[in-house]
């Protein structure tokens, strides 16, 4: 796993019982939007996790 520097989104994903496959998809999509900005990358991954929208798509 990548080193977390700003926001511990991986812990939030575990706490919300997010499947690893969905987390990887979110990481990949966000990385394409923010390839060089680590803080914005982690923030947007965290926001996507906390939104809960992924639960609807996982069902």
Taking all Cα atoms into account, the compactness measure Rg is 11 Å
What's the number of extended β-strand segments?
0
Ranges with pLDDT <50 over ≥5 residues?
none
Please state the structural category: mainly alpha
Number of helical elements: 4
Shape: globular
Through-space gap between termini: 25 Å
Please bin the fraction of helical residues: 55-70%
The oligomeric status of these chains comes to single chain
Q: Topology as H/E string?
A: HHHH
Mean pLDDT, as a whole number?
A: 92
Proportion of strand residues? under 5%
How many strands, what sense, and barrel or not for the largest sheet? none
General description of the model:
Helix content is about 70%, strand content about 0%. The chain has 4 helices and no strands. The relative contact order is 0.21.
List keywords for this structure.
mainly alpha; 4 helices; 0% strand; single chain
List the helices and strands and how they pair.
Layout (H helix, E strand, L loop, with lengths): L8 H7 L4 H14 L4 H14 L1 H6 L1
Helix pairs in contact: 1-3, 2-3
Question: Quick gist of this model?
Answer:
With 59 residues, the protein is mainly α.
């Amino acid at each position: 796993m990548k080193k977390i520097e700003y926001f511990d989104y991986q812990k939030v994903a575990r706490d919300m019982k997010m499947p690893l496959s969905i987390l990887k998809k979110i990481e990949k999509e966000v990385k394409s939007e923010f390839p060089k900005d680590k803080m914005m990358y982690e923030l947007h991954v965290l926001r996507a996790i906390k939104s809960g929208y992924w639960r609807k798509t996982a069902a």
